[in-house]
Amino acid sequence: MSALSAVRIAAVLPDVLGTYSDAGNVAVLAQRLRWRRIPVEVCMVTAAGVPPDDCDLYVLGGGEDSAQIFAADWLRQRPRLCRTLQERAATLVVCAGLQVLGRWMEDPTGRRHRGADVLDLTTRPARRRAIGEVVSRCVIPGVGTLTGFENHRGVTTLGPGLVPLGRVVRGVGNGDHGDGVLTPTVVGTYLHGPVLARNPALADALLGRIVGEPLAPLELSDQDAVRRERLDRSPHRWARGVAGVGARGVRHHAPRS
């Protein structure tokens, strides 16, 4: 991209998919660009607004069941935006944001609700809600370990050819030892926190896709202290996570995919 052009970031439906402070991911992305003296513009795309289809990066957060259904319907009515998310722009989706981009979501009554069909994935409810801290190994080179907080009841199944963003060491994630999804355009995860505040290397990996080159790490002492605190887990607790035991030693059971 041109050295003089601003990176354009769109927060999509922050008034609908706005739980768990996921809007903080937009603030993290914008600030990390400013610290590097890269111009940035942030666009808040509410339900009543007209979404631009020329932004560089789009962010969708979490929400309740009714919010998910609304968001999926809203996106399907905007096919140009869906094509942008699928084919061109970098996109970060968290929890409900991940689910609504899929083919369908099943509610606890067994009814299926159509998704935006941007990603080849489906979501149905688990028998038990997954709540607690998650640790996963990110498949993006150089990002390393991801941490976050999950609170969902979804079991997400990826279609053939899709890979998860990370392999779960502790917690539940998608329900099959993976968390989220990674495509050439979309980074999806179940991790709240906000996830980019807790995992700055993931934020920089997203931004690197836009600026066209890897970004040098920022030396921030507070950031490093938070990372150390979140990753300070004894080996036996991490081993329980591999076995499928979530936060506080509670085992989460999910239906077989």
- Helix and strand element order: EHEEHHEHEEEEEEEEHHHH
Biggest sheet record? 6 strands, mixed
- End-to-end distance, in Å? 41 Å
Give the DSSP E fraction (strand runs of 2 or more residues): 25-35%
- Helical content stands at 25-40%
Count of β-strands: 12
Strand arrangement in the largest pleated sheet: 2-1-3-4-12-11
| Rg, Å, rounded | 17 Å
Principal-axis shape equals globular
How is this structure best described in words?
It is a single chain. The chain is of the alpha/beta class and 257 residues long. The protein is 28% helix and 28% strand. A hairpin with a 7-residue loop joins strand 9 and strand 10. Helix 1 crosses helix 6. The radius of gyration is 17 Å and the shape is globular. 42% of the residues are buried.
Summary, kept brief:
The chain is of the alpha/beta class and 257 residues long. It contains eight helices and twelve strands.
How would you summarize the topology of this molecule?
Layout: E1 7-12, H1 24-35, E2 40-45, E3 57-60, H2 65-76, H3 79-87, E4 90-94, H4 96-100, E5 104-106, E6 112-114, E7 121-138, E8 145-158, E9 166-170, E10 178-179, E11 181-182, E12 186-189, H5 195-198, H6 200-211, H7 221-231, H8 235-242
Parallel strand pairs: 1-2, 1-3, 3-4, 4-12, 5-7
Antiparallel strand pairs: 5-6, 7-8, 7-9, 9-10, 11-12
Helix pairs in contact: 1-6
